[in-house]
Design a protein that fits this description.
Shape: flat
Strand content: 15-25%
Strand order of the largest sheet: 6-11-12-3-13-14
CATH topology of the largest domain: Rossmann fold
CATH architecture of the largest domain: 3-Layer(aba) Sandwich
Distance between the termini: 46 Å
Number of strands: 18
Number of helices: 17
Radius of gyration: 31 Å
Length: 502
């Protein structure tokens, strides 16, 4: 299994070393940030290389082997010279923390420079090509790969051609299934079919598939069924089942040990995504790289490494594993932080719908990916804000609520330390910006007839006798942007709009 990989000289992708690779490695980022480019680089034999370090034992073995190719190979009077030679070559091999399988020429050049600078080696005629080849053999070779594209289309009916090759987009799979199903029990292809059938039922929560030939024997069709129900044509079922079949073929049947998948979540319900990822983790031995927009595929318990791509003048890849792990432990959606244009930190979940309605009225939600994260009210000052602010655009908004003034003061201090802009409302809470007319539109006669004005500095529930938080979205929908015009809440919205850009 690959642990260290370098990709380079691939379009706009900056030379990148991916460390600490495990069984399941995830690449995430915004649209057009370079996720597919990185996956394509990993699929290209010309632009990828295995990396690794040499132990002292490895380095000594290479040095001793190379000594046998030098001029002092014979005789008994050269033991001292051999020891000088092997120690000098060993030091050279340990002089770099990492070597890569694409570095043959670089190893030869570096060894030449080392020999010129090392008086002990100048007396020997080094076989530099031998040393370079020995290093590459220790590092191993890059495994064969298969790249499954994001647009997959399993043929639902197909002319029978039992020798048709299965392509990564799903072409040819129907014929393979028909052929494998009709092989004798115990043969490799029939065993592959049975494994796919069992896994398909497990991951899809009880669905099964069937491939059947027509009366004339000219074509084969795909059908699905749930439980003991009758089979129905696949065209009548969801695309998620078709995608699952394609992925299972390459997970279970295809012989390539390294599987590269773009957007495995396409057309799949989150529960099916979760079961698929769990199945890959627990019941296969393949190594995966996947690109995703799904939070399911960033599950800290099932994923080994998370990489985050950004595209400015070049595509840059960052290791976001630690950030993803911390956010997951805190209960936040990792993809929100990694792919959003802006994350708004709010005190509690009831603030979210109000801001969403305001941002929608401003036309921001149709143009930008804006996420709101509740901080937990009076525990917000206990959060480690550094993980939020590590590299992403954030802003915080908090209530005035004098009852928790000390908590908010400590939170504001932490925001300042982490360069997170924070807006503290001038009114008691966000509900104090509601208009009486909007409240009456939603609650009708529940609002006292004598209630004419919302007091900015008194909790709204104390003014009207009940809590409106559960209907915050409905109230906010009844309001217009003019209703908050001239308030600090409007200024906050303007600041969000500025942060998002034109």
């Amino acid at each position: 299994m690959l642990e260290i990989v370098r990709v380079a000289d691939f379009g706009p992708l900056s030379p990148t070393v991916l460390h600490g690779l495990g069984r399941v490695n995830v690449i995430c980022g915004k649209n057009n940030s370079g996720k597919s480019t990185l996956l394509s680089a990993l699929d290209s034999s010309e632009h990828r290389a295995v990396g690794g370090s040499l132990s002292r034992e490895d380095a000594e073995k290479i040095a001793i082997s190379s000594a046998d190719t030098t001029a002092f190979r014979h005789g008994t009077g050269h033991d001292f010279e051999r020891s000088i030679y092997t120690e000098a070559v060993t030091k050279f091999l340990l002089s770099r923390p990492l070597w890569f399988t694409s570095d043959r020429d670089e190893i030869v050049s570096a060894l030449s420079q080392w020999a010129e600078q090392n008086s002990h080696l100048q007396r020997f005629q080094l076989n530099m090509a031998f040393v370079a080849q020995a290093v590459l053999q220790r590092l191993g070779t890059f495994p064969h790969t298969v790249l499954v594209p994001p647009k997959r289309s399993l043929q639902l009916s197909r002319q029978i051609s039992l020798s048709e090759k299965v392509e990564p987009n799903g072409d040819g799979l129907l014929n393979f299934l028909f052929y494998a199903k009709n092989r004798p029990a115990g043969t490799p292809d029939r065993q592959a079919y049975d494994r796919m059938s069992s896994a398909f039922s497990q991951i899809s929560s009880g669905f099964s598939f069937g491939v059947f030939g027509d009366k004339n024997g000219n074509s084969v069709t795909l059908n699905f069924a749930r439980g003991g129900e009758s089979m129905v044509p696949a065209v009548s079922c969801g695309l998620g089942l078709q995608d699952l079949l394609i992925l299972l073929y390459f997970i279970l049947v295809d012989q390539q040990p390294l599987l590269l998948i773009e957007e495995p979540e396409s057309h799949m319900h989150p529960d099916m995504q979760r079961r698929l990822l769990t199945f890959v983790r627990d019941e296969t031995d393949k190594q995966l790289f996947v690109t995703t927009h799904s939070n399911v595929f960033l599950n800290n318990a099932l994923v080994d490494r998370v990489f985050f791509t950004t595209f400015g003048s070049k595509i840059v890849v960052d290791d976001a594993t630690s950030t993803a792990s911390i956010l997951d432990d805190l209960g936040y959606a990792v993809t929100d932080n990694l792919v959003s244009d802006l994350v708004v930190l709010v005190e509690g979940p009831s603030d979210v719908p109000v801001l969403e309605e305001l941002f929608r009225k401003l036309g921001l939600l149709s143009r930008f990916e804006v996420k709101m994260w509740p901080l937990g009210g009076d525990v917000m000052d206990q959060l480690d804000l550094s993980v939020f602010a590590e590299k992403y655009k954030l802003i915080a908004i908090i209530d005035q609520d004098p009852e928790s003034a000390s908590v908010r003061k400590r939170f504001e201090k932490k925001c300042k330390e982490n360069s997170i802009p924070v807006h503290r409302l001038r009114r008691y809470s966000i509900e104090n910006y509601f208009t009486v007319s909007a409240l009456r539109s939603v609650f009708g006669n529940q609002i006292p007839a004598t209630f004419a004005t919302v007091d900015e500095n008194v909790k709204l529930s104390k003014q009207i006798g009940f809590d409106v938080k559960k209907r915050n979205r409905a109230v906010a929908r009844e309001m217009s942007l003019k209703d908050i015009e001239g308030t600090d809440l409007a200024k906050f919205c303007d600041r969000v709009r500025t942060m998002l850009g034109p």
